[in-house]
Amino acid sequence: MATNSSVNGLAALPQQEVYVTSSAIAHLRSRVDNELAGAVTFVRDLVETTRVDGIGFGPLGGLIMGGAYEDLREWADTTLGEARGAVDGWSSGLELARRNWRTAEDASKVRYR
């Protein structure tokens, strides 16, 4: 239970209790998979479009900044690849949390005999 949080993008009222549910975890995972993962992949794919071939910086510009520019492009590609790996890890972790939370929800139901 948390207070002063947001659920599904909606801010909770001050001192309002917010409960986590397996369906809320599933919704968050869906957003991570459908929105965040796609955005990271989109930006990483843009790195390839920033390639400057030949003498795009000019002969002198290529000598001065060509190597640094390529190093920066490589760094961006590597970093965004690692970010995508982190997002995939979050998705897996959220699925595990959802299953565990669902098991706890099922175990805490009142059963009448």
Task: Note down, in words, how this protein is organized.
The protein is mainly alpha-helical. The protein has helices at residues 22-48, 58-107, and strands spanning 2-3, 6-7, 10-11, 17-18. The strands form two sheets. It has a two-stranded antiparallel sheet with strand order 1-4. Strands 2-3 form a two-stranded antiparallel sheet. Helix 1 packs antiparallel against helix 2 (58-107). The longest helix is centred in the last third of the chain and has 50 residues, at 58-107. The protein is elongated and about 85 Å long.
Entry keywords:
mainly alpha; two-stranded antiparallel ribbon; 2 helices; 113 residues; single chain
Write the layout of secondary structure elements.
Elements: E1 2-3, E2 6-7, E3 10-11, E4 17-18, H1 22-48, H2 58-107
Antiparallel strand pairs: 1-4, 2-3
Helix pairs in contact: 1-2
Could you give a short description of this structure?
By secondary structure, the protein is mainly alpha-helical.
Helix content: 55-70%
Strand order of the largest sheet: 1-4
Specify the biggest β-sheet.
2 strands, antiparallel
CA-to-CA gap between the ends?
A: 29 Å
| Class of secondary structure makeup | mainly alpha
Strand tally: 4
Treating each run of at least 4 consecutive H or I residues as one helix, how many helices? 2
Q: Please state the average pLDDT score.
A: 87
- Large-scale geometry: elongated
Uncertain segments are: none
Radius of gyration, CA atoms, in whole angstroms: 23 Å
| SSE order | EEEEHH
Strand content: 5-15%
